């Protein structure tokens, strides 16, 4: 008898000596590792038979359902130890497992049999070797692995094995034989073992590796994706009509939204323009209505028709069968106390009783509590108080194509709706380390620092690196955002149809007029700068001693915006508005001049009468809707209660009259200056005629004569209609229509009822289902002139040509307008955008806007010493708008590419989670799959040859890496030349890459894997890949040190000194993806 200490003399060496040709080897042990087989390969090859008993149930067919989890884990590790135990990771990282597995499986088929104990009885392990002339036993043996036979140290303090000859050994053999033939206790598992080992050397499909990566990366988060957050299908919403009409990418969104609403109470759906957010939201509404919840949709007034159609019993309601039953109200109703809106009596409405509120165009609620110097209880607060905090628990779904402008605070305000303004309630549900408030502060800080970088360095990537992981975690939890590119990349566009191709925009800069002594924009601007517009601010002239009287009068009905604040707001808007209207059309400008002149004249008249007779009062100005574009009309300035009359005796009317007179003179001069610009001499209008001739005689898509013309003002739209409709009708026999928010539509078709819906239906008959709505009608409207009342949420994709007759000051508007025709599934091959710019350079144009704005600020400040109406954000905005407008001259951009800001698209991980869930629903768990598998995929232009490694950090002493969003997993993409293509700090991008390379490839790809197998001798010679793995791990260490050093000098605490990664042994290779050129290209 001898004692083997497994240090100086090991079991392996002893077995190599004892096992002779023709021996019989029997092993009873807890697990079998193919690496132990490899150590004794030569000897085991010569044995006559090899019998192995798993001493605890392993690979047996489950008699009952999966045992409780705690029994399941040890069994799992016994079964996966076939491919190496946790102490044999090093061997796995050499990546030769494939060839070892192949040889081992071959050998088992020829020589070995495996049985497993099926009872709960304990058995201690041992090995016996029966050679012709000697019998030896080795005991105790806990497993048959490289650790147990002494090649590796493992985590044993000592590992002493007794080695005994006959007669002791015969006793052990007898026990083994008795067990081996006991049918009650044993079950043969040889086939299962072979099958499991062969998974290691099978060719894997790329898709399998993608899911394996996801499984590991997200298994930490698997509680996030258990079935309960998947919508409850028993509600039958997947049988609904709306569900059947959705594209895949919309279905994905619906499931994710329901998941987020259930978990966090709120969700922002920020898919970009033209991806059908309305339909996605309707499916969510259907889900909740099936569960008997009451739903409210809050939308801008101009979209009411859309939302009403889907719930009413109309012929053109494609989902009438679903019988949706939500209420629709408008954003502005929140400020109203009574009256009827969309058929509901607001004074009796129980706002607190809605279970789900869907807010369409929710960016209108991005100014949270406390803008307007904390006085105005704005819509946002009303919504919060009336509907969300009151009554039943309310979930909030926000739809918006532009949730982040260039301030994250906008996003935070929208999120606040979901957690009822109490951020702690969301903090509890998020697994972030910091609180919500801190996360946003840090993100805004990082963003501000980033926005000061030079243009070249200011890339999205640079920003992503400085943002905190918590910020991603947060966005990931509550937002869903996909861009066009995303959909084209990840979904099968054959089913959806392609997006049309965008031609380069045409920019036109007609001068004001072709008259010889004509006046230019600049001369008009000079005059405009001299206006004080004091007509709008009578309160400035009230004697201080009398002010109190009016304060009491104007603070009616709890409206908190002071009369002075409101007047100044209007004064400022009006001065900017004059510019906007001049840019829009000479005609609109003239109308406004006349309106202001009349107002001033009647006021001066009243003052004169007062001077003569000693009594008169004047009423404060109320705005006229026609004067404003849609964004301005939406401000809170115009919703204030009843008119207030000011007694002139309380005013310094002399000074006021003097200043009014000065304005009147300037206005008169201006009226004269533009007076002789009639339509014949309106260069801009004539340019539009030329454009229409060109388009109608040479359509850009065969036979498509449709043109959509946008203007910000209804006056301009009507002016265009008056001139264009006749021109087009006489010359081409085509019909024109105009739609504005303020009047009913007008068309050139006799007896046509020009409601918004009818007009749009005849303008875009295919996308609007004309055949259903008006089955016998062949009416076509080819030219549509409209204001921004249709710039959001309408699908007019039959049209292929869009003209911005005036450039809106907010670039996002322009993109939204274009989104009417730039939509998924369009039948047009190409689409064209035309922009009319004022006849000046862009710099002049922008500077002009800022001059007007600052000038107004100065009047505000001098008259009150307070400048609260204009926020700091706007200064940044001008620069930002300038950059955006510049781009719009060159190309058509997506909103998400528009901003130098960041798009919410770059931030979430949710789609991966959903991919995985779907996979697991059909294929079950991946716990038993071996680690270290790989697949070979063809390289693409963007993704060159190389390897993507997915590694897991197994050394628990390593603190969660502060910068790696998916710690303990690390992914690195390294080129075949050893250059790092993407390092581990951008896992989102890497997951995108893997998804792109693998998704949908459910079979191995012979033309790439055969070549790889030849090069590596079927996985025996993995030196090159192994070298790359080493480089990849070193890169993690380098990048980590670099980012630690950066963090020493950045705000938000350092990640240095917290943890170290020392090298290969700290990592386990989960799987890898080999990216190869296809054979034919070589």
Report on this model:
- The chain has about 1100 residues and is α/β, with parallel strands linked by helices.
- It has 39 helices and 31 strands.
- The strands form six sheets. An eight-stranded mixed sheet has the order 1-7-6-5-2-3-4-8, sandwiched between helices. Strands 17, 18, 21, 22, 23, 24, 25 and 26 form an eight-stranded mixed sheet that branches.
- Strand 5 and strand 6 (about 135-140) form a beta hairpin.
- The model is unreliable at about 65-70, about 225-230, about 370-375, about 555-560, about 860-875, about 955-960 and about 1050-1060 (pLDDT under 50).
Detail the topology: elements first, then pairings.
Elements: E1 2-4, H1 11-18, E2 24-29, H2 34-39, H3 41-45, E3 49-54, H4 69-80, H5 89-93, H6 97-111, E4 112-117, E5 126-130, E6 135-139, E7 161-165, H7 168-180, E8 186-188, H8 190-201, H9 206-219, H10 241-245, H11 248-264, E9 266-269, H12 277-290, E10 295-299, H13 304-311, E11 327-330, E12 340-341, E13 344-345, E14 356-360, H14 379-389, E15 395-399, H15 408-418, H16 423-429, H17 436-451, H18 460-466, H19 469-478, E16 479-480, H20 484-490, H21 493-496, E17 501-502, E18 506-508, H22 521-528, H23 547-554, H24 563-584, H25 586-613, E19 617-619, H26 630-633, E20 645-647, H27 653-675, H28 683-697, E21 707-710, H29 714-732, E22 736-739, E23 746-747, H30 756-763, H31 770-773, E24 783-786, E25 801-804, H32 811-818, E26 830-836, H33 842-864, H34 873-890, H35 895-898, H36 910-923, E27 933-938, E28 946-953, E29 969-975, E30 980-982, H37 987-998, H38 1006-1015, H39 1023-1048, E31 1067-1076
Parallel strand pairs: 2-3, 3-4, 9-15, 9-16, 10-11, 10-14, 14-15, 17-26, 18-26, 21-24, 21-25, 22-24, 25-26, 27-31
Antiparallel strand pairs: 1-7, 2-5, 4-8, 5-6, 6-7, 12-13, 19-20, 22-23, 28-29, 28-31, 29-30
Helix pairs in contact: 6-8, 9-36, 9-37, 11-12, 24-25, 24-33, 25-27, 28-29, 33-34
